Amino acid sequence: MTTTAQQIGDQPPAHPVEITVNRKPVTVPDHEVIGLAIKEAAIAQGVKIEPDFQLSEELGHHQTRIIGDSDLVHVHQGSTFVAVGPDDNS
After folding, report:
1. Which residue of 17, 34, 41, 59 shows the fewest CB atoms closer than 10 Å?
2. What is the pTM of this model?
3. Which is nearest to 68 in space by CA: 39, 28, 90?
């Protein structure tokens, strides 16, 4: 008999999700990630941002919400985020 991760109480396997950060595709490891993990994944995948950039989620209908580094975010395929530098006044 083989032992699975579920049987020994480990975390269930991750399900990568493709999101968008600054109009670039980024894959995050699972449906629940923290803000810093989104920025780190974006940086690792070539998006030209820095860890201190402010992250916000585009909610639609011209609405956004600020995502802090430790905020847990539930993402889905196609979730869209914008990261801007601390000196960007746009």
Report:
1. 59
2. 0.82
3. 39
